[in-house]
Fold this sequence. Notes:
This protein is of the alpha/beta class. The chain has helices at 3-15, 18-24, 29-43, 59-86, 105-116, 129-138, 199-212, 225-233, 281-294; strands at residues 48-50, 55-57, 90-97, 119-126, 143-146, 155-170, 180-182, 190-194, 217-222, 239-242, 253-259, 265-273. The strands form three sheets. Strands 3, 4, 5, 6, 7, 10, 11 and 12 form an eight-stranded mixed beta sheet that branches.
Amino acid sequence: MDLNQLRSFVTLARELHFGRAAQKLNMTQPPLSRQISKLEDSLGVRLFDRSSHSVELSAAGRQLLPEALTILQKCSQVADDLRRGSDVQTGVLKLGFIGASSYRFMPTLLDKAARDYPGVDISLHEMTGAQQLDALSLGEIDIGLVRPVVPPANIVSVPVWTEKLAVVLPLDNPLAPRRRLTMSDIRAERFVSYRADAPYMHQILNGIFRDEQVFPEIIQQVNHAQSILSLVSVGMGIGIVPQDARNASFDNIVFRNLKLRKPVEAELHLIYRSDSPNRSIPPFADLAKAIGNQG
């Protein structure tokens, strides 16, 4: 028994006329008769009562008809699902992101995605890393851009971008003319730093202070690089931020390379659920990794 035989059976059962059924199936009558005969032989039953004037379903035929319809409908649905699933050119992708990713990586990613997958509608949701993990679990986003986190078992976390750190100073700071600074150079400066609510960058800076044996005066702590830049721009102090923050628009601050005893970089990770049915996720993740590899 195969699907062509079932289709022939269902069409003949509906028409109860070999000529009309053959026409519906775009074939002649002899091939249709052979399909029905093969199906009857494989099942070992007679499906139609034939006479020179009429065709009627047998008892076995009446029993098979609803089953055959169910099988054909299910096969059609599976084929449609597979076709839709393999089409990553269209769909909706809900992207969570942290503000720090918007300086360089995320705009690059969105620009590339718009050109490679123009039919994929990407909606943006700015959230903290913790909020993105919750949103992934609840299905509120499909994919996220976060600083490194410890994800649950069903969440995949892939590093896609790294940034060196830079010192940000007011333009009129005496150290501004220098192209590169060490922690010893800035040890006497007042600092605007990250709060513990921004745990990744907070831990990175505390680790640098500890390793370099420099413990500056921290006069303000905030959650975001943008806030650090704002406070530095009004002369409140200096800061250390990931270098992509250079793309923020402030006229009265400068960024200088930071030389450390042990090089430190800030990572950005892509996260998504391993069991997500959204077929746009794998190619989008591959795109993000490719951008990261290009640097």
